[in-house]
Design brief:
- There is one protein chain.
- The protein is globular, with a radius of gyration of 14 Å.
- Strands 2-1-3-4-5 form a five-stranded parallel sheet, with helices on both faces.
- By secondary structure, it is an alpha/beta fold.
- It contains five helices and five strands.
- Helix 4 links the parallel strand 4 and strand 5.
């Protein structure tokens, strides 16, 4: 049975880091967005809630995003993860190869990046239907 709501966790050290990104996601009634600033909070939410997508900034209050995504993927291989990174795509691929990230987001992702991510998530959902 397909869930009607997609739960997205945004994690970044700065309180307003994902402001425009989150605002754009909030316009979609199919999404429930939760924002936190640390890996500690993220772990608890992932453990206690049904999180479908985790979007990590380069830095969280207590760990860097790349280190934390490695932990998430090891513990929860079916959660879709995206990571903010200023690296060139080839460098990003080399650093994250094998982690199963579905997307690299630009530094300070805004409304455009949110729309792009939603389009990609819709494609992933279509793949699940078949």
């Amino acid at each position: 049975m397909k869930r009607t709501m997609v739960h997205i966790l945004l994690a970044g050290k700065e309180a307003d880091y994902f402001a425009a990104f989150s605002q754009q996601l909030g316009k979609d009634q199919r999404l429930k967005v939760v924002e936190v600033d640390s890996a500690e909070q993220s772990r608890q939410i992932i453990r206690d809630a049904s999180i479908d997508v985790v979007v990590l900034a380069e830095e969280l209050r207590d760990i860097n995003g790349l280190q934390f995504v490695k932990e998430i993927v090891a513990d929860n291989p079916f959660i879709n993860c995206a990571l903010v990174s200023p690296l060139y795509p080839q460098e990003f691929h080399e650093q994250t190869e094998g982690l199963g990230l579905f997307m690299q987001l630009p530094a300070h992702p805004g409304a455009g990046a949110a729309k792009e991510m939603l389009a990609f998530l819709e494609k992933l959902q279509q793949l699940d239907k078949q």
